[in-house]
Amino acid sequence: MTKLTETRKTPKRKKPDGHRSPSPCPPSKSSKKANVTAGPFNESEPFPGYSQPTPEECRAVRDDLLALHGFPKEFIKYRKQRSLDHIEYEEYDTSGAESSTESVLDGLINTILSQNTTEANSQKAFASLKSSFPTWECVLAADAKLVEDTIRCGGLAPTKTSCIKGILSSLLQKKGNLCLEYLRELSIEEIKKELSCFRGIGPKTVACVLMFQLQRDDFPVDTHIFQIAKTLHWVPAVADVKKTYIHLNQRIPDELKFDLNCLIYTHGKVCRKCSGKGSNKPKKEQCDKLCPLLGQSSNAI
User: What is the Cα–Cα distance from 234 to 217, expressed in whole angstroms?
Assistant: First the structure.
């Protein structure tokens, strides 16, 4: 990844108005297991002195997007799992939310299948894989071409098959079984080290597993979140994805990371201006008119 020259620029923006805050996201289980700050894979601070986003700005954006979209239903099951006491949150409609806990290995492979494709296609690919092969041992033993055909609807089938079979092979050789549940007992840094050993597993995939399957306080940065962070001046214009990930994990309060990440990701899929994706589709024009973030960062549009 090309390193860009870092500059410090203090953006002009309006202070957020007061907002009603919903119940905070339950604290991460990691707070009881290890006193480790989630976020950077190295200890450097990419933008020293850059003071955005503030906790107040993070909370305001969270509240605005929650009011606009509601909490995304596809993420409710993960949010419920973050509560050690299984507390229900009145602000969110939890009807129809699944309560079963997804295995760490299922979540990792599901995340791999989601790369460079739509959510609908990745879910079809994962469902096809699980229905065709009853266990991950069967996937490992199967011919690569058969696995490719099973997940072809998700795109990049040869590459993803190679990655999946490589992970399964390495895991079996290292641990003697195809299970990643042992990661639940490790610290954040230990989890990052373990997952990063697998070929084809990058920081974003690791961060997603940390946040969704392991209920840790981390803030993955995908294309949508990266573009919106730049739109809101939460990072300098020279920021790349890696530095944005490190900076946002340092700046965003742990108790806001999960909700804010899910909401910004959801918003980025429907708001063409915030996500930096030009489009003339009428349904996206409607979001632009209602978007609560555009007024907070008028200089970026």
Answer: 19
Residue 133, token pair as written in the block: 């092969």
Which pLDDT score is estimated for 190? 98
C-alpha torsion sign, points 255, 122, 235, 4 = positive
CA-to-CA distance for 207 and 94, rounded, in angstroms? 25
Q: Are 297 and 232 in contact (CB under 8 A)?
A: yes
- Terminus-to-terminus CA distance in the chain, angstroms? 27
Active-site residue (options: 80, 160, 192, 204): 204
Dihedral in degrees, nearest 10, Cα atoms 54, 293, 239, 53: 0
| 15 assigned to active site | no
Question: pLDDT tens digits for 196-230?
Answer: 999 999 999 999 999 999 999 999 999 999 999 99
pLDDT of residue 297: 52
